[in-house]
Amino acid sequence: MNAPDLTALALADMRAGRRVLVIAPSSSTAKALRDRMTAQLADGETARNANGNHRITSAGPGWIEIRGYTSVRLGACRGVVLDRVYVDHSELTTELAMRLGSSRSADIVHI
Fold it and tell me: What is the maximal distance between C-alpha atoms in the chain?
């Protein structure tokens, strides 16, 4: 089963007027996500980067903020009102799965 396309989901939410936060495992992954989303922008949609904060804004009220886990953990999103949050666990899950490979009862539990 294929994982849903985070880029398509977040852009669709933004275009529907939602305020979206995407939490990436690292700042470099956040930048890569921003670059993928920027390549799919429509007329009136803009992308900007200021001090490592990646923001995509629609022609309407919706927007996407893309941040690395560390910046969110340090409280950088205090006071922000959100409609949807996506958390990208892919790199962490891949790293952990390699560690569980030889276990007979291995499992990753998302809480």
Answer: 52
pTM exceeding 0.85: no
The CA distance from 66 to 86, in Å, is: 9
Residue 76 burial (CB count, 10 A):
14
Nearest in space to 85 (alpha carbons), one of 101, 65, 105: 65
3-class secondary-structure state, position 21: strand
Q: Are 20 and 63 in contact (CB under 8 A)?
A: yes
Going by the DSSP 8-state scheme, the letter that residue 22 receives in this structure is E
Write out pLDDT tens, residues 45-56: 999 988 777 999
Residue whose token pair is 């089963």: 1
Q: How many residues does the chain have?
A: 111
Closest CA to 60 of 13, 107, 26: 13
Give the tens place of pLDDT for each residue, 9-59.
Answer: 999 999 999 999 998 888 888 889 999 999 999 999 999 988 777 999 999
